[in-house]
């Protein structure tokens, strides 16, 4: 039996890395996608080896999770499509198929878990494969440390956790991020967020709400320079 998503509170976490899950069994694909997304990964899926290769030629991924039971893998290793980026791959395989790990596929570093797998083991192996690797950044993404803003999706994440910001909170966070370590006055913030100055109280409340969402993780990123305004970054005391 596959491990359930209820194990997630004690599981290893990702940091917003892009993971391609290549599985054709809908229940397994849903379990992996849901659990890895909750664990802080950004999930993409493919239902065949051929589709996976096509995705890999078009986009960069941090990790591939590949089920060796896919019916079209036999000829996959003979494909010679150029891959400009070769991510590590985590194979899902039966114990009696360990000799078929397809080294000729030629992706990056490899590891495996045997089926039926436990979700805890999948996440632990994924974390090891990704250790020390800098997450890939795609067009339209802005980042500072473990904070990532995906402009096309209007989504913000910290340490892989979705922040669920309102439009005004997202605009404020983006303004602070692109001006990291620069103090922004309340007037500058008001004009950027709303197009005009809304008054000190409205800006203080907006910053307070944003802090509660962003700075649940240490170290805090949003700071006040009393009498001057606000800035985003890691203070010298926290470095």
UniProtKB/TrEMBL annotation:
The keyword Amino-acid biosynthesis appears for this protein: no
Pfam families in UniProt: Response_reg, Trans_reg_C
InterPro entries: CheY-like_superfamily (IPR011006), OmpR/PhoB-type_DNA-bd (IPR001867), Sig_transdc_resp-reg_receiver (IPR001789), WalR-like (IPR039420), WH-like_DNA-bd_sf (IPR036388)
Keyword hit for Aminoacyl-tRNA synthetase: no
Domain named OmpR/PhoB-type: residues: 139-234
DNA-binding region range list: 139-234
4-aspartylphosphate PTM positions: 67
PROSITE patterns: OMPR_PHOB, RESPONSE_REGULATORY
Residues annotated as domain Response regulatory: 18-130
Keyword field: DNA-binding, Phosphoprotein
Protein name: Response regulator transcription factor
